[in-house]
């Protein structure tokens, strides 16, 4: 990769900049713009999320006291603790209560891929717009673009389904099902009721954008492939009697 990048920079420097926005009107460039935009929405909707789970606790000297547990990206829920109902912690019966689960690997995988895809789209668009002549004349560039597109499409598939599974578990770990696992709520004279949890619509949207990115990158494989020698060779073979 280092050698290829070095040769790419040398080639671009020698070829010179020729700004041409014409490729953006073609499927190859237009889809790359959509990939760039959708990658922004993917990491913004997931990485920028903040929420909290709220319970109503009644215990010694406390009636329907609101306790909250604030959580956010990267969703290490096992480090998130509920606030105590009162300074006396229900007469000593309330202990620190944590949410369950660590979903940081799936969330960070998804967001990291979105950021890398965003950066690659910028680099590709610079080449498409300013160095189209180099891209079309040097067979290595389309082949490299094809390889990266195939790998990225596959990673979108893996990361999106991994994140969707993690999101379902996050909803379980922050919903009403948390109460049966809280030992302090089982103490004599103590009752806990689930109040609310922050809406996760933006996280649902992040999964949708993950699927859209997967479709875009998968569909773009064909348009990148058409610019490679592999397509030209197969075309010549099919035309040979």
Automatic annotation (TrEMBL):
Please give the start and end residues of each transmembrane region: 109-131, 143-164, 203-225
Q: What is its main location?
A: membrane
Q: What residues does the MARVEL domain cover?
A: 23-229
Q: Does the keyword Membrane apply?
A: yes
InterPro entries per UniProt: Marvel (IPR008253), Synaptophysin/porin (IPR001285)
Give me the Gene Ontology terms describing cellular component: synaptic vesicle membrane
Keywords in UniProt for this one?
Glycoprotein, Membrane, Transmembrane, Transmembrane helix
Q: Does the keyword ATP-binding apply?
A: no
**Location in or out of the cell:** Membrane
What is the protein's membrane topology class?
Answer: Multi-pass membrane protein
Q: Which PROSITE patterns match?
A: MARVEL (PS51225)
Would you identify the family this protein belongs to, as annotated? Answer: Belongs to the synaptophysin/synaptobrevin family.
Protein known as? SYPL1 protein
Tell me the gene name: Sypl1
